[in-house]
Amino acid sequence: MTLSALSYNDLPLVLARLQTLGELHAPLRGSDGAVRFGPLPPGAQPDLTAQRSLLPPKKYLLAPSETILTYHPATGYQAPPQPETPLILLGLHPCDLAAIAYLDRLFMAADSPDPLYTARRERLILIGASCTPDQYCSCHQMPSPLPATCDLFLYQQADGLLLHVESPKGQLLREALQDLLQSTPAQQPPASTRDHFGSAGVATSHEELDPNLPDWQQLADHCLGCGACSICCPTCSCFEVLEFGGLDGCSAERLRRWDNCLFKSHSEVAGGHSFQKDRAQRFRYRYRHKYRGYGQLRGLPTCVGCGRCRVQCPTGLDLRPLAERLERSTP
Ligand code: SF4
Ligand code: SF4
């Protein structure tokens, strides 16, 4: 795959060109100091040095709340229409790319692809960007087996950007930017945080976690159950499905909205029974999903080390020491 050089001075021209090729979204710092992915206004500069966005890019693939199906006798069952214009996401860090690779496995499994997710994913063009880990990141401490795949990747260097083509979609973009790029003597992409992803040798465990470990209660004693850690996690993707009948008595709407395993309601079923009625149980459940995977993807850790949960937790809970102990000591 091809490497090209791009000077920081020419970045605005590249952004303007990308805006002619699709809808361009990138990290932007708001007046509140928080960084969010959103549409890049013409002439604006993305914040490519931002450590992490408030919400991860999963919001582009799984909306917080959305109608997924409607019914009316005149039209039958109908899925909501999806835009077809390419959506270019620029400035995704390797952890967020790895998270999308995980969501792809979950929602685009060959035997049961989710049609809404698949339509949105096919529209996306991913442009990654290198970054430097801070004290909240764990990608370098517990490398992820998930690959940080994308279409183009930008290596940020002191004297400019190195652009690496990584897919046929990326090759088309590069051709559209050709006159703004320079050749480079570099043959190989430089070392970066990306190297922590796609590590085939990461040991994972299928073992069940001991429900009697005192750690669950100790963690739960400090947890407020607010759910912020799950909302901001790029791989947390649990949802609930709600159905509403129309007042006309013959139409209906089906909604999907984010759910949260730290909420008591998440595991409640008919009759008032709950599978995770104690916070300690819910904490163990979350830990297991983050560090050991679940369902058909059991054994595949889903934490990509973005650090958002540690930044957002109002009581500063950090699962790293426990993961270090439980996962490193597991054969
Ligand atoms: S568990 Fe925390 S650090 Fe890991 S991916 Fe989720 S938000 Fe990021
Ligand atoms: S963000 Fe912290 S307090 Fe809130 S649910 Fe998660 S661990 Fe508990």
Primary descriptors:
Aspartate Aminotransferase, domain 2, single chain, 331 residues
Describe the secondary-structure layout:
Layout: E1 3-6, H1 11-21, E2 23-29, E3 35-39, E4 65-72, E5 76-78, E6 87-92, H2 94-107, H3 115-123, E7 124-129, E8 152-157, E9 160-165, H4 168-177, H5 214-222, H6 228-231, E10 239-245, E11 252-258, H7 279-291, H8 308-312, H9 320-328
Parallel strand pairs: 2-6, 6-7, 7-8
Antiparallel strand pairs: 1-9, 2-3, 4-5, 4-11, 8-9, 10-11
The chain binds iron/sulfur cluster (2 copies).
One iron/sulfur cluster is lined by residues 138, 232-235, 290, 303-309.
How would you characterize the overall build of this protein?
By secondary structure, the protein is α/β, with parallel strands linked by helices. It has a domain of 175 residues: Aspartate Aminotransferase, domain 2, CATH 3.40.640. It is 25% helix and 20% strand. It has 9 helices and 11 strands. A 7-stranded mixed beta sheet has the order 1-9-8-7-6-2-3. A 4-stranded antiparallel beta sheet has the order 5-4-11-10, with no helix packed on it. The longest helix is centred in the first third of the chain and has 14 residues. The chain is globular and about 65 Å long. The protein starts with a strand and ends with a helix. Bound molecules: iron/sulfur cluster (SF4) (2 copies). One iron/sulfur cluster binds next to helix 6.
Bound small molecules, which ones?
Answer: iron/sulfur cluster
| CATH A-level architecture of the domain at 3-62 and 82-196 | 3-Layer(aba) Sandwich
Rg measurement, Å = 21 Å
Poorly predicted residue ranges: none
Q: Which range best describes the helical content: under 10%, 10-25%, 25-40%, 40-55%, 55-70% or over 70%?
A: 25-40%
Proportion of beta-strand residues: 15-25%
DSSP strand count: 11
* Oligomeric description of these chains: single chain
**Under the CATH scheme, which class of the domain at 3-62 and 82-196?**
Alpha Beta
